[in-house]
């Protein structure tokens, strides 16, 4: 049984939704770095205060801060997990690889949710999160292309990547993902 997965794809591709469905069905931990950071902001913690402006601008929070969150959560988890929104650049890939070596865990599948940019923009504008306005969306997509997209090739080169067409309805996508888990 495959137990350690991650979701890769642009903002608005549906990573959070699909990761939530899959983690619920399998009782895996769903670790969304974006969700955890937003929670810190809502709680008004010092970490939240540090990251608020960066997130609202659509820029990436420092690798170091995000790594702390990931480590803290994976450390206590030996059941299985789904990472959503991490890693987002090659330096985070390296950090994740070392964390996993230390924990004696391996990543088995990387689901890449692919979707055309014009569909993304529409979806994000509909979602209406605080960082979902037109300017911020542009920044997030630009950062995604420049720093996150190269991860697709990396995970493909180590044969972990599974391609998912994310321009379909939610149920069709989740069925596809479940089939590809086998
Ligand atoms: P998300 O919910 O994945 O769209 O993330 C929302 C925001 O949280 C991003 O635009 C970043 O500012 C921040 N964030 C989430 N995950 C990461 C990460 N792995 N590295 C840096 N910043 C992140």
Q: Can you give a write-up of this model?
A:
The chain has 182 residues and is α/β, with parallel strands linked by helices. It has one domain (4-181): P-loop containing nucleotide triphosphate hydrolases (Rossmann fold, 3-Layer(aba) Sandwich), CATH 3.40.50.300. 59% of the residues lie in helices and 13% in strands. The chain is built from nine helices and five strands, in the order βαβαααβαβαααβα. It has helices spanning 15-26, 33-43, 46-57, 63-75, 90-103, 117-127, 134-148, 150-157, 170-181; strands at residues 4-8, 29-32, 81-84, 109-114, 161-165. The chain has a five-stranded parallel beta sheet with strand order 2-3-1-4-5, with helices on both faces. Helix 2 (33-43) packs across helix 3 (46-57). The longest helix has 15 residues, at 134-148. It is globular and about 40 Å long. The structure holds adenosine monophosphate. Adenosine monophosphate is lined by residues 11, 33-34, 37, 54-55, 58-61, 66, 85-86, 88, 92, 131, 140.
Descriptive key words:
182 residues; alpha/beta; Rossmann fold; 5-stranded parallel β-sheet; 9 helices; 59% helix; globular
Set down the secondary structure blueprint.
Blueprint: E1 4-8, H1 15-26, E2 29-32, H2 33-43, H3 46-57, H4 63-75, E3 81-84, H5 90-103, E4 109-114, H6 117-127, H7 134-148, H8 150-157, E5 161-165, H9 170-181
Parallel strand pairs: 1-3, 1-4, 2-3, 4-5
Helix pairs in contact: 1-9, 2-3, 4-5
Which topology does CATH recognise? Answer: Rossmann fold
Largest sheet: 5 strands, parallel
Order of helices and strands, N to C?
Answer: EHEHHHEHEHHHEH
Q: In the residues, how many domains can be counted?
A: 1
- Please tell me the CATH architecture by its name: 3-Layer(aba) Sandwich
Tell me the fraction of residues in β-strands, as a range: 5-15%
Highest CATH level, the class: Alpha Beta
Number of E strands: 5
Distance between the termini: 8 Å
Helix content: 55-70%
Low-confidence stretches: none
Strand order of the largest sheet: 2-3-1-4-5
Briefly note the structural class of the backbone. alpha/beta
Bound molecules: adenosine monophosphate
Task: Write down the overall mean pLDDT.
Answer: 95
């Amino acid at each position: 049984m495959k137990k350690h997965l991650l979701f890769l794809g642009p903002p608005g591709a549906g990573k959070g939704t699909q990761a939530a469905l899959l983690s619920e069905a399998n009782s895996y931990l769903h670790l969304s770095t974006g969700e955890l950071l937003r929670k810190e902001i809502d709680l008004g913690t010092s970490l939240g205060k540090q990251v608020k402006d960066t997130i609202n601008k659509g820029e990436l929070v420092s690798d170091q801060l995000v790594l702390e969150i990931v480590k803290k959560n994976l450390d206590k988890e030996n059941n299985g997990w789904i990472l959503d929104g991490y890693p987002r650049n090659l330096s985070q890939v390296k950090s994740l690889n070392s964390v996993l070596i230390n924990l004696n865990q391996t990543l088995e599948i990387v689901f890449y949710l692919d979707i055309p940019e014009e569909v993304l923009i529409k979806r994000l504008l509909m979602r209406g999160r605080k960082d979902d306005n037109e300017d911020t969306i542009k920044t997030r997509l630009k950062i995604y292309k420049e720093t996150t997209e190269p991860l697709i090739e990396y995970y493909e080169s180590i044969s972990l990547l599974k391609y998912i067409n994310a321009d379909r309805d939610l149920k069709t996508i989740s069925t596809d993902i479940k089939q590809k888990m086998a």
